[in-house]
Amino acid sequence: MADTETLTGTGGAPDILGWSCPLPLRDHPRVVMGHGGGGVLSAELVANLFAPAYGGPLLAGLGDSAVLELGGATLAFSTDSYVVRPLFFPGGSIGDLAVNGTVNDLAMSGARPAYLSCGFILEEGVETAVVARVAHALGAAARAAGVEIATGDTKVVEAGHGDGVYLNTAGIGLVPAGVDIRPQRATPGDVVIVSGEIGLHGIAIMSVREGLEFGVGIESDCAALADLVAAMLAVTPDLHVLRDPTRGGLAAALGEIAAAAQVGVVVSERAVPVPPQVANACAVLGLDPLYVANEGKLVAFVPREHADAVLAAMRAHPLGARSAVIGECVAEHPGTVVCRTPFGGTRVIDLPMGEQLPRIC
Amino acid sequence: MADTETLTGTGGAPDILGWSCPLPLRDHPRVVMGHGGGGVLSAELVANLFAPAYGGPLLAGLGDSAVLELGGATLAFSTDSYVVRPLFFPGGSIGDLAVNGTVNDLAMSGARPAYLSCGFILEEGVETAVVARVAHALGAAARAAGVEIATGDTKVVEAGHGDGVYLNTAGIGLVPAGVDIRPQRATPGDVVIVSGEIGLHGIAIMSVREGLEFGVGIESDCAALADLVAAMLAVTPDLHVLRDPTRGGLAAALGEIAAAAQVGVVVSERAVPVPPQVANACAVLGLDPLYVANEGKLVAFVPREHADAVLAAMRAHPLGARSAVIGECVAEHPGTVVCRTPFGGTRVIDLPMGEQLPRIC
């Protein structure tokens, strides 16, 4: 499922290498912003609240989308709601996010995305021109991603009970025969590859929202990754794990994979491509780029024997030109991500609690 | 697509038997509550704003769900967002609605619903106990309807930018071979059957929200209709149209079918089952029961030769025990629904502008 995956089978707060949750999460009497941040608080909500309420085996899966059989076809199915603020930002809009976010969740199962649904929750009084601009962005993004918006719905809530436009998309896609990509398949020895420079989406949103200027303009990397994934699968169907590091950034994506497969991950900090503007902005704001959201990147766990060829295929694709090997999967410290610093030390990459910046997507 | 169907191919305001829209809809500069009401204003939004922006053939369809081919399977795919106020009401909750509404949209294509996605947009500060109660209602309704919640997402917005809990579900189901149920198939000679008493959902919501008392308590009819549809399909796969008369009530459902197929519909007002409490409440409030929302009823256009057997099968099902023939499909006055009053007169049943009561589902 998308973004709110269960981190542990037991539903307790993670306790990794002595790190434990500082808040009595189970006893949160009210929802806080961090419950929507895609980190530990989101995972707690899934593990302690949604999973017991819903039951069923699929929700217990940890992929970005559910993979299921229907009418003889193997389908991926995923949903995300979008509440990003502002609606339009450098490099994209809520409409682009709503298409690319769900398309990418499907692609992370190796599926070829095919159809999207789209539900609008509009706030009374929002300009219809704004709604039209969002709808046109949605349509253009869908055409670019090769998916069709097949069905939709619109609801309106009173002024003061929304924020202009909220969106939800759900998507379905076809998983090719022989493809089995999910977090549990991370295997010691796998090479960890990221498809390009990280942190652009989060810093772009932050800069426009807070009116900050970090030298050259920073644009969101918002993009549909299904075509890049198809190029990787053309090298080998045996990719182990794909994940798009959105809310919670690379840290959350790697942490969830490590927890799901009970493997260790070692990342070389120096190898992670961080653009200078992102590095500067993070330094000013006291942020770690590993935790900043991306909307057009993926991280892949690839069997070592295929790593060179997959990396070459990624670099040959416009959306993967800056792909880089950033680390490896190990048998040691299962469930934990460790980062080798440029100074020869190591640090543990904790799962984020919530999101550094609310309503990033 | 669900609830916001295009009413005319040209996107203009309907002009039926001299009735024309009193508002310059295309020029609405801001969204009004009626844009979410499932009536003419909603249809205008789809025809003039969403359809041109998205393109694609499926959205131009008029069913409650899109029917599409994927991996050799014929699937129905539908979505609805739910913003009902209050979250819990006599006979159900937003959780029940979110399951049954989407399950019913799938069933109205003759599909057997299989999987749902579920996206929450929570308002900061809402009690987690409330969220848990909604989630448990969702889970219970899904189990009752025989569908699995396969994937989900949670976002949180700041206090003052939501209303506790908004939900979206999307659903997929399998359309059996030989089944082709859609509004365009309405054919002169078809018998029009409704599956039971109308108006219960709308009046239940209205009474609890406005603190009105209409004698005996009125409960929402919220229920999943897939099993009832399966019983009807067991009689004949050749049902022409199915529709669940939610927002805008029976009037909107029949009006949309008449417009889509360019047929006339004649309804006998006396034959429409209206419970006394609904009739009383409507009399007090100045409402027409034909326009009041239902969440557990369907209207069917059935070829005359199968009508008796289908009606018998419906009456044998717990959710169709009060099924009744309410009218017929005719070649005259294409696009228009006419009601024969108990006094021997006739009146035109216009499409509603918006919803009598906002946020009914």
TrEMBL record, chains A, B:
Domain PurM-like C-terminal: 188-338
Protein name stated in the entry: Hydrogenase
Organism of provenance: Streptomyces rubellomurinus (strain ATCC 31215)
Domain PurM-like N-terminal: 64-175
Matches recorded under InterPro entries: HypE, PurM-like_C_dom, PurM-like_C_sf, PurM-like_N, PurM-like_N_sf
Coiled-coil annotated residue ranges, if any: none
BP term (GO), one: protein maturation
Record-stated family: Belongs to the HypE family.
Source domain of life: Bacteria
Pfam family, one: AIRS_C
